[in-house]
Amino acid sequence: MKPSILKSIAGLFCFASIDAFSVNRVFVSTPAQTQQKLVKDCMTPNPICLKTTDSVDDAIQKLLNLGFNGAPVVDPIAGNLVGIISAFDFLSKEEGGTLLPLVQDGNPQNLKLAADAARRICAKTVEDLMSLDPLTISPNTTMKEAAEIMTRDRCHRLCVVDGEGALIGVLATSDVMRHVLKIAHQALPEGEKFEPIDDSLLSP
Q1: Are β-strands 44-45 and 167-172 bridged in parallel, bridged antiparallel, or unpaired?
Q2: pLDDT over threshold 90, residue 30
Q3: Sequence-ordered list of residues with C-beta below 8 angstroms from that of 181, at least 6 positions apart, any chain
Q4: pLDDT tens for residues 60-82?
Q5: Cys-Cys with 126: which of 54, 155, 174, 187 at CB 3.0–4.6 Å?
Q6: Which has the closest alpha carbon to 38: 136, 146, 135?
Q7: How far apart are CA 137 and CA 153, in angstroms?
Q8: Which residues, in sequence order, are CB contacts of 123 under 8 Å at separation 6+?
Q9: What's the CA gap between 47 and 45, in Å, rounded?
């Protein structure tokens, strides 16, 4: 990458350190923009979805063929968003094996964890394996706010829903990365060229 591009990207970050309770905090910001981009400007519209009735094997094959590591899950009849599934869900099924956590204290939370583990171990369909209550976001949310939500909740994708709760798109971390690169492009000195983005390196 050219030094000028590196300088431009480095210029995106403004650091301020505050000594409070012996903890240094770092603040990061991007250059001021006349109009902030919204989620609807950067999301993937009409996303590929899995159905609750899809088998786990079919879901894995479909995601591998598409080069995706996760997807929203919809009800096959109503078509409404009911969950989300990711590579971590498939990994948790494999990691669970045939062993269930032993619950001896009758704690409701531990019982729920044991039941969830059993559901994943025995999962045959996407409905058995998916994560319920996916994080959703409005298409009119700013990209800055979306990035903050992803960072706070450590999630790789947000389901974009309209005012009636219908799924209209997906915002993935790869979309945020593309947005950051475009900002870096705009920050380059006049006359400088920006290396094209290879989308294959930013899988959803």
Answers
A1: antiparallel
A2: no
A3: 194, 197
A4: 999 999 988 899 999 999 889 99
A5: 54
A6: 146
A7: 13
A8: 56, 93, 129
A9: 6
